Amino acid sequence: MELLYSWLTANDAMSMSSSVVLVVTSFFTSMMTATLGIGGGVLLLAVMAGTMPVSALIPVHGLVQLGSNGNRALMMARHIDWSMLKYFSLGAIVGAFLLWFSCRWLLYNLRLPHLFYFWCGGVNPKHKK
Q: How far apart are CA 93 and CA 85, in angstroms?
């Protein structure tokens, strides 16, 4: 039981009441997205912004969304058009590489601000040769 408590409160970084609010909100916003198709993630992000540190907001929200969408995909697996998945995956991989290379090019050739450092997968402009 103590392990569950430390896990839910992130080793006392948050109160138990905040953790319960986030779990319940996550459940209801996931139901909202499943039924309406939109809006749950943004609503959850707004609630999370008021209950947790800003530095942890996006990573935690990403994990929650990954779990929620993964669970929904597992429940609806028999309705997935698997023949289209290979085309979608191929396009996603090609698109990700094109974005990565274009960000690197913009960062190195146009000397854009270091904000792009995070968008380009850790390309550090100070180490340009």
A: 12
Sign of dihedral through CA atoms 66, 59, 9, 41? Answer: negative
Radius of gyration from C-alpha coordinates of the chain: 19
| Nearest Cα residue to 47 out of 77, 24, 31 | 24
DSSP per-residue string spanning 71-89: HHHHHTGGGS-HHHHHHHH
Split into its structural domains, the chain has a count of 2
pLDDT (tens digit per residue) in 5-14: 887 777 777 7
Q: How many residues does the chain have?
A: 129
Question: Is residue 93 a contact partner of residue 87, using CB atoms and an 8 Å limit?
Answer: no
Same domain, 70 and 30: yes
| Confidence (pTM) | 0.59
Indicate whether 70 and 95 sit together in one domain: no
